[in-house]
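Technical note accompanying the year-one report. For the benefit of new consortium partners, we illustrate the data format agreed upon in the data management plan: each record pairs a sequence with a structure-token string. No post-processing was applied to the example shown here.
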Amino acid sequence: MSKTSQRLGLNLRKIRLELHMTQVQFAKKLKIDTAYLSNLENGKKNPTLETIESIAKTLGIKVEDLVR
């Protein structure tokens, strides 16, 4: 796991919990598979830049906010 993947995962989990959403609800909002979201949150998957941009757009945040 890279540090960037771990940061992305932690930030996704933090945002999800701030929104009081389950992984299933959050995955539906992001239009991604629940298992994929779980892998992202755990830093096990490296999403494409297109996926990161889509997630940021859906959440109304900057890409930088996902990986800082």
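Partners are asked to follow this layout when depositing records. The chain has five helices and no strands.
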